[in-house]
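Handout, section 4.2: multi-component inputs.
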Amino acid sequence: MLQHGPLLERLLAGAFICQVSDEDAFRHLSQEQTQQDINHYLRPLNRRLVSNDDNSVYFLAYHELNKVAREQLSSQFALTVQSLLPLLEWLQLVQETLGRDSALTAGDTIKLQEFVLRTEDNQSLRQRLNQLASDRFFNSQSDALDNQVKLIFRRLKEHGYLLQPHSDRQYYIVTGKIDYLIDVIRFIRDEEHLPVDDTPTQQAML
Amino acid sequence: MAPLDTGSASNLFSVGAERLALLGKHHKALMQGYLDGFIDEAAFSESALKKLIAARILWRPDEQQPLALRPLVSELIASMVADENRRQINADVAEKLEQIRNRVQAYRDAQYKGDYSVAELQLQRLTEHVHDLSGQFEEAIDSLWHRLNSDFGFVASLDDKIRENERAQKQLRRLLDGLDLLDFNELIELSEGNNQLRKLLVSQLQHQLSSHHSSLLEVQKRLVELLARFRQQQARSMLITNMAAFLRQHPKYQPADYPNRSDVPLLFNQAAAIQPQAAIALDKASERQILAELVRALPRAAVINLPDQQSASFAAVMEDEEIAARQQALKTDVENFYLRVIDKAGPVSALEYLAEQQLSWDSEIWLYQIIAEYQALPQDEKHMFAIKRDEVPASAVNSLLLIRDISLSLQAAG
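Output:
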């Protein structure tokens, strides 16, 4: 188990492990034997290793749901629900600002400077960014575009959605946690039968 | 190649060469026509236009339409520059196969008649057809790979990419169907008894076509994968857009309380973080050496010698201390004065006491401190002292009273 020490520490600290955030660790986690070893180790800590539907991201879940665990999950869930709209709006904004033809996926690179430059010249994007930055999830107090963008990206980095390979260079890579977010949205949509479509209608296909 | 009819062949040669030269001569204007979809007639002289039309390079599709490149020329350019928007794929195998059959027959007839030069020419033509057939697949496969490797980057939107991918898959199916038309038993029969034919039609063609076949299957696999990815991306974009719209319309929306269900969905079972802590194990003798090294490696706080700064801060501290000490001394002297007042029954003059004790305080500061000390006394203790100010007006015209001296006496209680 010693070889997985750093990985275990990251998992215990609440990290989401995907191919982007840690390729080696992700490869280890994909092996059944490693999964068993890790689960065996985590058992006394009331933790177990889980992944999203298509196994693109791993994280730790409670083994048994006692009262403390439920309370933690409730507050975690409230945070997740509260963050849904700001995160979705950010995804849309990035896609539109950078003129991409598809939504962000794990492994995509975003250059901060490019994002700022394109937003600067466009009044409507500028306004939407302003609104997004002041959302309580990001909670920016600044009026300056540069600060707002930096804050938004820093928060997303803290929440594990983005990875900054070099702390002194302003470019970010989208991590597999975005897949988790999409899974959460899809789950809520399915479970609550929300009128939210994700397949193109016949009209659109023609 | 042995020309059969030198006259017509040389005529063909000169006309062909002349017309190819036309392409080169007007290359820029023609390429512009390829990009624009029509020819700018002003860019050519009238005779040049006539020549280009006669050479079947340009044509007028309709009376009302401007001149344009003939489809075959456009196709040639598209193939040369791998322009996937315009590149054509020719999946017609039946026609080629028919030509091959005919040539084999003509070749055999000529051989039968002993007309070897004709036979030679027919063999040459047959070889060309076989190469054409193989080249046709090669061109198509090249085009498909090119599109695949660029992720259909030649069209902008995801919807277009999906449509292009579907079109490519249809082409691919036609190519595979075309390959199925080739019956090697028939080819073996055609080449029976002739080594050259067998080499050309069986070993060479079969080898090439089987490699094309596996290439096509590989492309097909990748196309299907890519289409699935495109569709996934499309679904994701739509989900994001529509969910965001839904949440915007229903700001009060609250999903069910999943964490408190008996069966918590895995997605919402996200354990709290634990930060493991560790410290040095002092009980392990074997690690002492390492520990010692670690301690030695610790950066030591460097002693910084900055004499100027040091003396300045020293003076500042001294000053503070000196002031505090002087204030304390003043308070002590004033207290002693009060004790004297208590000891002595009668009034005691402050200034007289100052002179008598040979204290170095400035008389004004001395009086201030006595008054301040008196004011600081609790109310009931204040009554114990009678304070008497010896006051004079500042001048004859100014009625401001200046305190010259204070005399204090103990008052009889009650």
